[in-house]
Design goal:
single chain, 10 helices
Length: 285
């Protein structure tokens, strides 16, 4: 596993052969209300945060119709009205939201088409750059769910297709129906249960979007983050993000926050250089 030592903001990654973005994105789940439900307490502040991200040079925003639901997409559209041509927006579909912190999978083809049409309206776009199947529905054959997305792709309503929280077997199966350009799985320095999926993405040149990229606290790995952060005069979150950037050139972190201050802290991780020893310590615990 090769490591790199410097990640300036202008370091880029290309999705699907034609979408080149900077290697620190923004995850827009937390610009909604508690339980990822309803509007945020301070909507103008949420709009200002997304706009601040664009002004800081971040040009990849990840969201979903289920965040709010709909709230995150609406805020993004308002915030990025002046930046629309320069920002790649990825959204997802495949969940129904009965209430706060409730997530019910629904990836029926007709439902996914309805979601895509709604996302186009809310995001005020003619084409969605990256449309991701948020979850594989155990009640629906995967080829039917992805078939709906390939239909939308042929119609010019979505540019690229991705999947989320998939196993290697599911990823391999998905490739038989659609051209998959990204996989979004839970992955961080503490939780590497999707390591085999990342390796498959590296093999195929597919972008890997780690959700929950900062992980939890309290483990031995977190203690290592604390030690390395102190040595680098950085924060543990910056070290965790730097580890992801160093782990693979196919990783595109999408940390989320509701705070401009926290966003700025996260973004500084691109300037952090891990030594080989530091990288290997975090990788081996």
């Amino acid at each position: 596993m090769a490591s790199r030592t410097s990640y300036p903001l202008l370091d880029t990654i290309t999705i699907g052969g034609n979408l080149t973005v900077r290697r620190m994105g923004f995850g827009a789940m937390r610009i909604t209300g508690p339980g990822v439900w309803g509007p945020p307490a301070d909507r103008p502040a949420a709009v200002a945060l997304v706009r601040h991200a664009a002004e800081a040079g971040v040009n990849f925003i990840d969201t979903a119709d289920s965040y709010g639901p709909y709230v995150s997409e609406e805020i993004i559209a308002e915030a990025l009205a002046s930046y629309a041509d320069n920002i790649v927006i990825a959204t997802k579909a495949g969940f129904v939201r009965p209430g706060p912190d409730e997530w019910v999978i629904d990836a029926r083809p007709e439902r996914l088409r309805e979601c895509a049409e709604g996302s186009l309206r809310r995001l005020k776009r003619n084409c969605i750059d990256l449309f991701q199947l948020h979850r594989i529905d155990p009640r629906v054959p995967m080829e039917e769910s992805l078939g709906a997305l390939t239909d939308l792709q042929r119609e010019g309503k979505i540019r690229h297709i991705g999947i989320s929280q998939a196993s290697v077997d599911e990823y391999e199966q998905a490739k038989k129906t659609a051209t998959i350009v990204s996989v979004q799985n839970r992955y961080n320095v503490e939780d590497r249960s999707s390591e085999d999926v990342l390796v498959a993405c590296e093999r195929d040149g597919v972008v890997f979007l780690p959700w929950f990229p900062l992980g939890g606290t309290g483990s031995l790995k977190h203690a290592a983050l604390q030690r390395i952060a102190a040595a680098l005069r950085a924060t543990p979150t910056q070290v965790a993000l730097a580890w992801l950037l160093t782990r693979s050139p196919y990783i595109l972190p999408i940390p989320g926050t509701s705070s401009i201050t926290h966003f700025d802290e996260n973004l500084k991780a691109v300037e952090l250089s891990l030594t080989t020893a530091q990288f290997e310590e975090l990788s081996s615990i």
